[in-house]
Amino acid sequence: MPVGTEPVNLADVAVVTRDPDESKAPPAPPRLSTHRLNAYFGTARVLRNISLEFADKAVTAVIGPSGCGKSTMLRCLNRMHETVPGAVVEGDVTLDGISLYKGVKDPIGVRRHIGMVFQRPTPFPTMSIRDNVAAGLRIKFGSVPPRKEMDEIVQSALVRAGLWDEVKDRLRESAIGISGGQQQRLCIARALATRPEVLLLDEPTASLDPMSTQTIEELVYELRQSIAVVIVTHNMQQAARVSDSTAFMLAGELVEVAPTRALFTRPNDSRTEAYVTGRFG
User: Fold this and answer.
1) What is d(CA 39, CA 168) in angstroms, rounded to the nearest whole number?
2) pTM score, two decimals?
3) Which secondary-structure segment (H or E) carries 184?
């Protein structure tokens, strides 16, 4: 059985729980939504009519076997899919009700609001730790902010990423001189520096050791207090630990989405049950 696809026993993991009083409040409108989303690489259709809502101040995990379209969907959410030659998107994505495909002409503008962190840490190797965090600010503001403001933004992003205390005396050093786990948190800080409404994480701990993985998971759990987070993961234990809701995908289709505990313990679809209990994947 592939690593990370072991059956989930929720008695053995910490699952996000809500205050009982929250159930009395009406549900908030979704921060981000897809509407009959289809994606193609040339003539190959890899997403099929995905309609999915992502809540604000919550973590949504997306699980499913390799090749099911999880990462492609993530890249459609901030219009990165269309940067691949021959890639096509049909349908729509909305952020706070605004169409990102029909109502926004500049894809780069979309990425100011929807940040993304990839599977492997991608710090800019020729830049210092500080300059890595500040890299997206020129795009956001159209020019470099004053130095004092820049330093405050960099510090705030590193604090939110749980990295400030570890690198505050090394800000001028190369970003590739820190550990892999620190590099991944640096990439998260870089994404957070533009103060996005949504953060997309594509297998953010796949290449990290267990201690670094735990640190990233704790960070994801903390981030849900302020923004919407979408995390693609092959590790179902990780999905159970960090997410409020989980979506299961298979062969380019959305099979089921539900609160995390419900999806892992009382799935509505037999395919979901087969996957989370380890019968395939």
Assistant:
1) 42
2) 0.88
3) helix 180-192
Task: Give me the number of domains the chain comprises.
Answer: 1
Q: Phi and psi for 212 in degrees, rounded to 5?
A: -65, -35
Please, what sign has the CA dihedral across residues 93, 63, 124, 221?
Answer: positive
Q: Which residues, in sequence order, are bridge partners of residue 32?
A: 54, 95
CATH code for the domain of 206: 3.40.50.300
61 and 241 in contact (C-beta within 8 Å)? Answer: no
Tell me the per-residue pLDDT of 196-240, one tens digit each, with 9 for 90 and over: 999 999 999 998 999 999 999 999 999 999 999 999 999 999 999
Under 8 Å between Cβ of 184 and 216: yes
Helices first, then strands: H and E counts in the chain: 11, 10
Q: Which 3 state secondary structure label does DSSP give 177? A: helix
Domain assignment present for residue 21? The answer is no
d(CA 89, CA 87): 7
Which helix or strand (DSSP H or E) is residue 91 part of? Answer: strand 87-95
Structure tokens at 168: 């505050």
For 56-76, the DSSP string reads TTSEEEEE--TTSSHHHHHHH
